[in-house]
UniProtKB/TrEMBL annotation:
It comes from the Bacteria. This is DUF3791 domain-containing protein. It comes from Phocaeicola sartorii.
Length: 69
């Protein structure tokens, strides 16, 4: 049950990311899985799975922005 909830959360975040970056969901999924935020989301020790979707999206966007600098 817990994994299903996480997968639904990930799908919502990926769709938000695709919308924000104006890219396909498939491309957004690839970007998402290449982030540190994704790793942290899958590790319950960080508690990121308890945060809201927009909070996590903002973490991803900040991470991507820092990579470009």
């Amino acid at each position: 049950m817990k994994e299903q909830v996480l997968w639904r959360k990930i799908s919502r975040i990926v769709m938000l990311l695709a919308e924000r970056l104006e890219i396909s969901p498939e491309r957004a999924l690839g970007i998402f899985y290449g982030t540190r935020t994704c790793e942290m989301l899958h590790d319950s020790r960080y508690g990121l799975h308890l945060m809201g979707d927009l909070y996590i999206l903002n973490d991803i966007l900040q991470e991507l922005q820092e990579r470009q600098s």
